[in-house]
Here is the input.
Amino acid sequence: MTYQFDFSSLWAYWPEFLQGAWLTLQLSAVSTVLGFVLGTLCAIGRADGPPWVKFLVASYVEVIRNTPLLVQVFIVYFGIATLGIKVSANAAAVIALVVNVGAYTCEIVRAGLESVHKSQLEAADCLGLSKPQIYWHVIIRPAIERVYPALTSQYVLLMLASSITSQISAEELTAVANRIQSDTFRSFETYIVVGIIYLALSFVVRIGLWLFGLAVFVRKRKLGTAL
Amino acid sequence: MSAVVKLSNVYKSFGTNKVLDGVSFEVGRGEVAAVIGQSGSGKSTALRCINALETIDGGTIDVCGHAVHDEKLDRRSLRRDVGIVFQSYNLFPHLTAEQNIMLAPSCVKKVSKAEARDLAKDVLARVGLAEKAGHYPEQLSGGQQQRVAIARSLAMQPKLMLFDEVTSALDPQLTGEVLKVMEDLARGGMTMILVTHEMAFARKVASQVVYMHKGKVWETGPGAMLDSPRTPELASFVGSGL
Amino acid sequence: MSAVVKLSNVYKSFGTNKVLDGVSFEVGRGEVAAVIGQSGSGKSTALRCINALETIDGGTIDVCGHAVHDEKLDRRSLRRDVGIVFQSYNLFPHLTAEQNIMLAPSCVKKVSKAEARDLAKDVLARVGLAEKAGHYPEQLSGGQQQRVAIARSLAMQPKLMLFDEVTSALDPQLTGEVLKVMEDLARGGMTMILVTHEMAFARKVASQVVYMHKGKVWETGPGAMLDSPRTPELASFVGSGL
Amino acid sequence: MPSFSLVHLEFLGWAALWTLGLSAIAFIGGGLVGFAVALMRISPIRWLRYAAIGYIQIVQGTPLLILLFLIYFGIAIAGFQEVPALLAAGVGLTIYSSGFLAEIWRGCLQSVPKTQWEAAECLALTPWQRMTRVILPQAMRIATPPTVGFLVQIVKNTSLASVVGFVELAQAGKLINNSIFEPFTVFMVVAAIYFAICFPLSTWSRRLERKLNVSRR
Amino acid sequence: PASADTLDEIKKRGKLLVAIDLGSPPFGMTDAQMQPTGSDVESARLLAADLGVPLEIVQVTSPNRVPFLLTGKADIVMASFSVNEERKKVIDFSDAYGVIQVVVASPKGTEIKSIEDLAGKRIGTTRGSTNDKEVTSQIKNAEIVRYDDDATLITALVSGQVDIMGSSPQVMAAVNQRRPNDPLETRIVLKTNPYAIGLRKGENALRTRLNEWIAKDLASGKLREIYLKYNGVPLPQTLPATN
Ligand SMILES: Nc1ncnc2c1ncn2[C@@H]1O[C@H](COP(=O)(O)OP(=O)(O)OP(=O)(O)O)[C@@H](O)[C@H]1O
Ligand SMILES: Nc1ncnc2c1ncn2[C@@H]1O[C@H](COP(=O)(O)OP(=O)(O)OP(=O)(O)O)[C@@H](O)[C@H]1O
Ligand SMILES: [Mg+2]
Ligand SMILES: [Mg+2]
Here is the structure.
């Protein structure tokens, strides 16, 4: 069968593609920020918390890393509702994505924390810094700087994985694609266009995180060397 | 002369390894004490105990009015009074020399940013590195890093400074730079305890030499004691150490 | 005496850095040529060009009848004729000494396994390591590893051996072991080019000394040339190199 | 009204086998293609290298969901209409894993020091002999932990094959839920089965990594 | 675009590929033994028997019914496939063999009398379905929540993620089975659609054959029996024309 490609019928839908891409970016940005905070806190808890916290965090990380995001999304979405709390699909999507990326962030940041030498803590301790001050000034900042490339990759993957949330009615890029293709019956063309938009988005996310890194890691910007 | 540091009968073991076996000595205000002895004799451990980096098993340690042996010791207030400099510098790699120095005053003493910067300029000048304020540790030589580390401690205006083999990672020329700074400090009246392998320096600067051997204070006296050792152990140590 | 290796007017740059600037010399069959010169003078690069590990920008290199400068050069057949030993041994860490040696004969010459093993035993005995056949590289000292590396090259029965500072990662005693093996080879009539810092060894073993300076062959002559340098550069090099 | 029963558990069990099968296809297919791409990625021939970089970038920059859709409908458009979902899912997952495995393995191949490549070359080994006899045995040790780690990703990501109608574990969960509407129970059980498959793998991967770190010290 | 005659191909292949949405009770679903069932499934079996070939079910969802058909993964679609003008531009339909309404339903106590009352409310529907089209075009100012299939919509309604649905009475019935305490009630009928078998354009022989079968089994009452059995209401005496 010879298939007639026809991208022209998709042209009318560009505002919707744009809207979907925008929501994808928003979902990813919010999940990245919250997931980073959650993951970092968990990493600290796992490195320096009481045994029960360590156990809790370790279990959380293992469970999340060893089950598919798709299933996590369903459990969050329907689980929350079963508890009688109504949240919008976007909120459920963000919760699921944050829980998911938090676990990965935790593992990555933990590696960073472990790379900070014990003598650094002693030095800070001897200067009279309090524990939170030591964490903030001496441990977390260099730790994050060291693992920043790994975090960047993880957050690009998160952006791509957010396509799964279309299944619980979040109107992000993939959901928009599904709707457009059932309107136009141009599924192949639609998915090609969406694939290209995702490629562009991952480029945007990478650039964004790179710029953010430049702004935050002054030493790296000035010297260009890895810690 | 009032004692700034006073160790009485301090015991400390790591597992079954008795590292400090009844150590006692005193250091008065403005004194410079040089602790010498073979590797493994417990010098670093003694220094770390003074700064409460290790807890002790027996005896008492008084440092600037703090009862270090006490379980209820307020470590942070002890550490405002005591500065320590390590062999491995331990500068914070992600901060410039100036930021390294400003950190503790602004975090601990809540000094304003501008004041902290002035303070940093001041102590950097004292160690002869005024123009390196904006450099990151990796951009500095070993001797310069060590001097920044000293400046970082000085910025907290401690009553007592501890130095643990601060020159042994340096080549002879860089060693000279650092020893000069320490000499200046001694001349300025700072109370100091230094663990060192530099006999010549100990002889020249120290008002008291403490010779440790197998976890005990074996001999103690003025710098001149190195020239006329009373025990065969010190004699052989001085002989070999030159 | 027919030339085994002949470099004529060889040029080679890395980017804007002219590393070989018109190098010419010849090595005849059974000759031992020692290439000496300061760090960065292009010695290693010359050696690597002879073995076609680097391509050259101008001039010609003939090695055992292969036109190395030719684009259509059959590298594999060149390398059956030329053995090279590096400063950093480069043994394969996942193979035993014996397996390291057997690899090339069985892969390249399609020798049977049993024959290859006999061959390995043979060359290991020649470098004095018969009893280390089953050891992995990490179980051997630096000098032993270097001798296995030489044996590995020897097993291919090359017509020419290249040595690049094969002793400079070794302490004096281990150096002695390796130099002895090389001396034996020289005495056995092997054609050899060695880059070395061991002036005494060059003087003793080399039939020709090539002094390189700034990418050029500055002086060349018999070992005795080192005792009566004609250029001030060689004079200062020999003076400092001792 | 039916509720969650042994029948459903059995149904999930069979679906889990499909998940494993799909993972095996993805791993083997992805491994073969990925290895070829990794070789292209370090090839001295420039256009091969660029082709490999482009391939890796595109695969890693597209969500698997979209990749699966594209392949499912793309194969049909190419004229093969009776494509079983298994084939489409297999091809999609193969492409996906090859993109990631290629990048992982490229790193491992390049972590074998350049001097080893040169030494092998100087012994007149052919490029193939050099790869199989010298480089691969060394690279494989380094590559094992991240490869096993990625296997976990593959197992989890087979769940997306459900979007092209393939009945693996996640899709089976959806089907059961369609008939009994107990989403929480059903997806918890599904999650537990995934965990039971993936957890041993990730533990193994981490143990290998530790062992490697110790031996390299 | 199909070149060959699909009817011949079905005969030659000895198998009928029917696209059915198993996530849309009571038309397509699975029973307690996880076997496919529902009115579309039984109708498809009837058709296959009539054609004299075994049936193979191709599982689809609302959004991908048409691509499955167009890319040749199925011969025909029997998935409560409502007839509308957009679809007719791309594919052909047989005569109707059932009807389906698009209704808005909500629980007791919600004040919905007209479309205007829906402003600002969350309404659940199935992405890419006729329901989605009607709801989206008729109801403005409402938040429309779209799921990939009816089953997910039902799960969302049962678990309380949404309370108002824009879908068929059949979906409502399935929901009410699972939430007996707080059942949904029909508020507004947006449209009544005939549904028919979808097939690729230009398959006239196949369409004629399908229409013969529909006429025959409507007359024999078998199709009416199946509709009644699963929907609980009888099929109207005359079905609207589709072409
Ligand atoms: N954290 C520790 N755990 C166990 N043993 C320790 C620890 N710190 C030091 N030791 C042991 O205590 C003994 C004394 O160590 P210490 O570092 O005080 O010696 P030192 O006199 O400073 O020697 P050096 O000149 O080598 O620095 C040594 O035997 C050492 O192995
Ligand atoms: N692969 C390369 N890329 C760029 N520059 C190179 C490369 N290899 C060598 N060089 C440069 O070529 C010059 C000569 O290097 P070469 O290794 O031949 O010197 P050498 O005489 O062997 O010195 P040494 O005694 O230190 O080994 C040096 O300036 C070096 O930096
Ligand atoms: Mg010490
Ligand atoms: Mg060299």
